[in-house]
Amino acid sequence: MVSFMNVANNAILRAHLPERANLDEFGITVINHPLNLTKEQLSEITVLSTSVDAVVAMCVIFAMSFVPASFVLYLIQERVTQAKHLQFVSGVSPLVYWMANFLWDMVHWSVTPMMYPMSYVFSVPSTAYVSLSCINLFIGINSSAITFILDLFENTSVSPLLKTALLIFPHYCLGRGLIDMAMNQAVTDVYARFGEDYSPDPFSWVFIGRNLFCMAAEGFVYFIINILIQYRFFMDHWIPDGPKPHILEEDVDVAEERKRIQQSGNTNDILRIKDLSKTYTGTIIPAVDRICVGVLPGECFGLVGVNGAGKTTTFKMLTGDIDVTSGDASVAGHSILTNILDVHQNMGYCPQFDAIDELLTGREHLHLYARLRGVPESQISRVADWAIQKLGLSEYASRTAGTYSGGNRRKLSTAIAMIGCPALVLLDEPTTGMDPLSRRFLWNSIMSVIQDGRAVVLTSHSMEECEALCTRLAIMVNGSFKCLGTIQHLKYKFVFTLYVIFLIKGYGDGYIVTMKIRTANPGCNPDLSPAEAFMESTFPGCIQTEKHYNTLQYKISSSSLARIFQMVLVNKDKLNIEDYSVSQTTLDQVFVNFAKQQSREDDAIVLHPKAAGVQRYIETIPIKSSRK
Hints:
The protein has about 625 residues and is an alpha/beta fold.
């Protein structure tokens, strides 16, 4: 409309000018300018615009609170299943592991490294996701909203200090940076209404420059904190351990092995454990108490004992999973205290619980760990096929590990431990859940490792397995070795002594008599009373261990096997005994009875001094008897 008025006015003006007049020197220009907004109008527009942008910033914070929390799910799962630790044992350094995660996750934003240290707090991935998301929301939204509201008040000295202090949180840096950008744009629009050019640099330090700098710095700092946690920098392992009491009445074989380890410097031992101890925080009794042993090439060393004896704790210290309280150990000459990465290069490890990724197939597992072991790329497929054939996994190699049975999981874990031909293989109860055929497969695989001149340390509850594989054996009780030697040596040394002591304490009691009573009258239950009265009167001190519908079982301490047969045979018809058997108590049965007593207070039975001295040697030794 203004342009049309200008054209019309200029046409009228020029029509009335003299003929020789210069038309360029004459003209009419009309300018239309709106009325200035009032102070109230400007304030309302600015607040509305800034508030909308602040809400948008809050929504961004809300969305970005869930994204970084999701990054720790897989990390927690790997830590809980020990897949991460198994990767470390297979040759991955903690720095490489976390750098790979860091570079992958940093494409999102800087709060991701802050989530890494938080992953150590949780053991359930879903719980971690919900908890960390709520923490991110609380920090991000509340910190940004509080500082934004404080900025609306004049003459407040708290807001600048609070805004500076909250820069340690990446959530605040992001949210407050978005709000500052929105406020900067709103001020620019107000200046433009008055024809002023106001366009400050949004990346300057006073706007979002310090936020961006803090986010970049925090990503680096939180990553360093995570690495320090992984290397246990904040743990108390560097605090010197207090003095320990002198070891009293140690078995002679254990003492000789301790003397050999402490006095000899250069040996051929692949594994060398010297006074290794572990005492958990908040406890006084050590889980592992100054054990000493050396394992030579071509040797399978067995470590047996009841649950809680300290076997798995020993393995965790050897692999670097937990800190050592005192003592040291070396693998192929490398100390677990100072050269754990070199130790991992010479070690294969099958943990007590399967550390496998359920989304990978068995073949993919073996390919992964073969690469970590440094197997040449051209040989990886051949090495994986060798492990698959060796452990009998051909039928399941292409299936995801999540579909494996318990026995197949153990075979896969054992194959991972053996791949790459490490000098030392640690197997923590490898045959748990395996059928007899699979167990034989595994035994043959372990024998091939021994024949190659490498060393194996095996924990097991099966004495049959130890007799089949182990060249030496140690019985571990309450964190210390009670005996050590070959299977035959331990049998020769302890079988007779154990038998005498168990008779004295009433644990073995010589023989087991089992009787089956026939029914005198068809349709009626058999009467067991006469047989019970006969056993109690004929064999004083006998113990009834079982009583069923028509079956009785007794433990008898009599040393005369002939008398037992004679008395039962003479009274067979009188007592309606249909069938009976007499067997000698095995040391496996003795061990079960003894283990039951282990958790109780010591009984009041007084032993002969010599028997008491011997008994202290052989606490809870589960060795099969050798009958003569």
